Amino acid sequence: MTRIQNRAALAQSPAHETVLDALLAGIEASDPATVVESTVSLDGDQLRVGETTYDLAAYSEVVVLGGGNAASQVARALEAVLGDRLDGGLVVTDDPVETERVTVRPGDHPVPSERGVESTRQLLDRAAAATEETLVLGVITGGGSALMPAPAAGIELDDLVETTDQLLQSGAPIQDINAVRKHLSAIKGGQLAALAAPATVVSLVLSDVVGNHLDVIASGPLVPDPSTFADAQAVIDRFDLSLPDSVSERIRAGVAGDLEETPKPGDPIFEHVSTHVIADGMTALTAAADVTEAAGYDSLVLSSRVEGEAAEAAKTHAAIANEIRATGTPIEPPAAILSGGETTVTIDGDGGSGGPNQEFALSAGLSLDDSTIVGAVDSDGIDGASDAAGALVDESVVDRQAAQAALDANDTGAYLQARDRTILTGQTGTNVNDLRILLVEEGSLKAGGDESE
Predict the structure, then answer these.
(1) Which InterPro entries match (predicted)?
(2) Which of 236, 248, 364, 381 ranks highest by number of CB atoms within 10 Å?
(3) pLDDT at residue 448 in the model
């Protein structure tokens, strides 16, 4: 079970406690053990996933294949359901847990590594060994793009690392980032499904992508890829990226038609592939809102699909909180505003520590009065370039000049850590994107006299 390691320093009032409780509830609701138990069951030979049933008697083996931040937790939860009906498999992750039947191999996130390449090679070999009598339970979770690197012919790992670094720092949305990565890979963009054919594939997805676009989650290794080499080139041009020669040459060759495209919608390899999203951002938001409602706050879920620059999205959220405080519109205080999605940070200069959720919290804090608390976390427990999941901020910890300087330098982590406002959970074993809560009180948080620093 996830816990907040520095809770004592953060929980300075009942309102602070409520925000922390709600954030934790959101994370725990999307825990793989919880969601697998509620969506997957076995009755004799009948395996139920959601509303669909699969007859295990029709297959000679059942294996788990895939990867992502939460992949080993999903694999362990599937072992608990299937027991000795499961014949093994392999997943790649950066957050391993002990399993009995499924092999867990290491990878790294957010930048791919050599050990991830080797682990993914083993995954591809296992997929290629599947036959028409194999039932593959495909485990796809957030983080899979970096954790399962399989450089295409002519691309070295260093080329992928440099390309990934530039894409992440450009501020490009995940759809654009993955359009490039899919065309530099031997696994992404439906290519894992191509290797596993003619097996039956049942994909279980924990979505960390706004809108649950299946081709974007972990770069869509088990689903058709609607993006093209031309789309990848357009991303490179739009963000004015200067990528390694091998990458540029491969993309140009693909645009010219000299390389085979990734599998597209309508390809017969997908006739025996089905996909089930078993948890997403709304899973976390619903659980968090239940906590704030139970604590007496009128709760408004804005959206599970918030994107854009973290600091700018924060200003909009803060404006809504201030409107609630000033006019009781759209809801009366005490109130909770909740949202999910995936904001980004465009790095200016060298950057520093922190991540989108820490930028969001501090930027919102600059615009909030002393009646509001903002908490924001990445559900996987790792927010950007930091060891923190996110941050908990109120007006009392905002030194306007220093806070703005930290935002300008993309160094919010250092600012917040120095004031004991980062939220530390460690890796949570799940990944359904960001979770944000703004709690608007009826009166000042300072009214009781014991909430100041």
Answers:
(1) GK-like_C_sf, GK_N_sf, MOFRL, MOFRL_assoc_dom, MOFRL_protein
(2) 364
(3) 43
Q: Please report, for the chain, the start and end positions of each structural domain, with discontinuous segments joined by +.
A: 7-28+281-440, 31-150+185-227+262-279
Q: What is the pTM of this model?
A: 0.88
183 within 8 A of 162, measured Cβ to Cβ: no
d(C-alpha 304, C-alpha 292), whole Å: 17
Which numeric CATH code is attached to 7-28+281-440?
3.40.1480.10
- Which residue, 358, 284, 351, 320, is CA-closest to 439? 320
HEC-encoded secondary structure of 269-308: HHCCEEEEEEECHHHHHHHHHHHHHHCCCEEEEEEEEECC
Measured between alpha carbons, how far apart are the two ends of the chain, in Å? 30
Compute the residue count for the chain: 453
How many other C-beta atoms are found inside a 10 Å radius of the C-beta of residue 234?
A: 16
Please write the tens of the pLDDT for every residue from 48-107. Answer: 999 999 999 999 999 999 999 999 999 999 999 999 999 999 999 999 999 999 999 999
Q: Extract the tokens encoding 53.
A: 């049933």
99-153 pLDDT, tens per residue? 999 999 999 988 899 999 999 999 999 999 999 999 999 999 999 999 999 999 9
Cβ atoms of residues 25 and 290 within 8 Å: yes
Report the C-alpha gap between 141 and 23 in whole angstroms. 20
Q: Amino acid letter at 310?
A: A
Whole-angstrom distance, CA of residue 190 vs CA of residue 281: 23
Residue type, 90: L
